[in-house]
Amino acid sequence: MASSSSSSLSRVVVKSSDNNLFVVNKKVASQSQLLKQCIDNMEEKGTNDVILIPLSNVTSNILTLVLEYCEKHADFADDDNNNQELKQWDHEFLKKFDYATLNSLTMAADYMVTKSLLNLCCQFIADSIKDLTVQQIRQIFDIKNDFTPQEEADIKNENAWAFR
Amino acid sequence: MALSLQRYTWTDANSRFNHLLKERLNRDKQRSMIISLEKIDHLPENLIVEILSRLPVKDLLQFKSVCKSWYSIISSPNFITKHLKNYYYNPNNDSWKDCLLVQYYVTHAELQLYELFVDETRRVLANEVLYSMPMYSSYVYGPCDGIYYVYQYDSNGRALWNPAINEFRTLPRIISKPHLPSNLTYASNEVYGFGVDPLTRDYKVVVVKGHWSTNEDITDNVKFPVSVLVYSLRTDSWKYCGDLGRAYDLETNKCYIYVNGCCYWFGSYDCSDDDDDDEVIISFDMATDAFKEMDVPDYSRPSSKCLGMYDDSLAFLCLSDTEKVFDVWTLNEECCWIKKISVGPLPEVRSPIGHWKDNRLILQCKDGKLVVYDPKTQEVRDLAFQKDRWCEGAFAYMESLVSIKDTNETEEVEAGNIPV
């Protein structure tokens, strides 16, 4: 058993919901506040064992993407959000995904508390749905219109200029 | 009609404008193809809030009619605050500042407000509402969180206005200083500021008014105490906040100046001899209701000058009358003025007007034309907008969902009752 001095872990193992294991460098894992919290807790306890963190909400497909993002961002300082190279990389990174993936990625970023990725995803989705019609929005988000025709007309009248 | 709106784009950049427009249309097309292939699963409400808070007001007003849950999200005060933070005060997004509102003095009875579109903007603004601006021929000042202060000189009328959600609130009649001697009356001129108390989030209008003597024996030069009157939206009432230490002659700002909870005005002591050494800057702190006096920079005199903002802090803009050199002064950490920019000569320019996005500065030429100086490119660009009148104000247009209605009414909406 470890003595009073706290040990330092260099790697952790993260398990996806479909039971795949990912070995992650501590610096990369720390991009996620959830993983960082787990690591900090273990280090406080002074364990020398490799720790396994199960993520019951994230599939391996999505976890691969989150880790790819974390790996890239681990190379940059926390306050380096305005770095042009990184911004460009972020954009190219998200551009590749379809909406279902983007959506799962957003939820994973939220769950794993990776704030910068969450902000990035939300901004990306917002930019994509800008200027769409109400009908298109309902379609994409699979939302049922629960207004009566009268209620809907009233809301439109209230904000008539926005519908032009 | 008090208000005319016109749309302008950079004339010298027409090809660029069209190019950008085309690019954007293509982007839109590609986007809609992706969308038709995939559906977004049901996102939890906290993430819907995160996404919606990054959208322009126009979209949000439309998306209120998507479903009841979106309606209540978009109507909630917490969301409205989050939206200001994520959409407007997001350093990565300042495209909303592309639209400039410019105000002109036309005749004694008329002021006009023009809307200028520059760069690639192709938004629809709250046009219908802007067109029917409720108070005839008034000065417009702001916006603070999408709200404008509206002041009608002739009728002494004052109001707050949020054009995006079509809310207009006439302020109660301004009060007088208590126990005002009967031989004094308010001067008709006043300067004003508008902003939000950063601690209480209460919107406040501050009016600084001098007095005239009703006794004709006393010369016009004498201005009796300059009083400070503050309106609070939360209490819907005016409060007398004391008199300034001396009689000042203050100038109305032509652009919106509100820095870290403070309003500023340029002015001078009201002395009979015209001495430039009398010039001062007065600040008013929205949180503490305290006034302060500041020195002006040691600029080259005589100059035409005004206050503005640069790098999000107070700036002093001046154009020397003889050399026609345009200087921008800012305050350093020790609160000393330093000359940040010096450019020129600009022989065509008559006077500075104020600031715009990306540290761009707006100037007015002798022929009334507006130009923009961009410190990044060191270019002076023509806004391709000209009136044979003097510009009275230039503001980056902003929309918000912030309600200025009576608190009672707001609470009804908060409770989730959809007005039918």
Tag the structure with descriptive keywords:
heterodimer, A: 164 residues, mainly alpha, Potassium Channel Kv1.1, Chain A, 3-stranded mixed sheet, 3 strands, disordered N terminus, B: 420 residues, alpha+beta, 4-stranded antiparallel sheet, 17% helix, disordered C terminus
Walk me through the structure:
The complex is a heterodimer of chains A (164) and B (420). With 164 residues, chain A is mainly alpha-helical. Chain A has a single domain (11-145), classed as Potassium Channel Kv1.1, Chain A (2-Layer Sandwich), CATH 3.30.710.10. Chain A has eight helices and three strands, in the order ββααβαααααα. A three-stranded mixed beta sheet of chain A has the order 2-1-3. In chain A, a hairpin with a 5-residue loop joins β1 and β2. In chain A, α3 crosses α5 and α5 (99-111) packs antiparallel against α6. Chain A starts with 10 loop residues before the first strand and ends in a 6-residue tail after the last helix. Chain B has a domain at 172-296. In chain B, 17% of the residues lie in helices and 39% in strands. The interface between A and B is large, with 48 and 47 residues.
Summary of the model, kept short:
Chain A has 164 residues and is mainly α. Chain A contains eight helices and three strands.
Q: For the largest sheet of chain B, list the strands in their spatial order.
A: 3-4-5-6
**Gap between N and C termini of chain A:** 70 Å
Helix content of chain B: 10-25%
Alpha carbon gyration radius of chain A: 21 Å
Largest beta sheet: strand ordering of chain A: 2-1-3
Largest sheet of chain B: 4 strands, antiparallel
- What proportion of the residues of chain A form beta strands (DSSP E)? 5-15%
Major sheet of chain A, described briefly?
Answer: 3 strands, mixed
Overall pLDDT metric of chain B: 80
The quaternary structure here is: heterodimer
Structural class of chain A: mainly alpha
Overall shape of chain A: it is elongated
Instruction: Assign the CATH class of chain A.
Output: Alpha Beta
Order of helices and strands of chain A: EEHHEHHHHHH
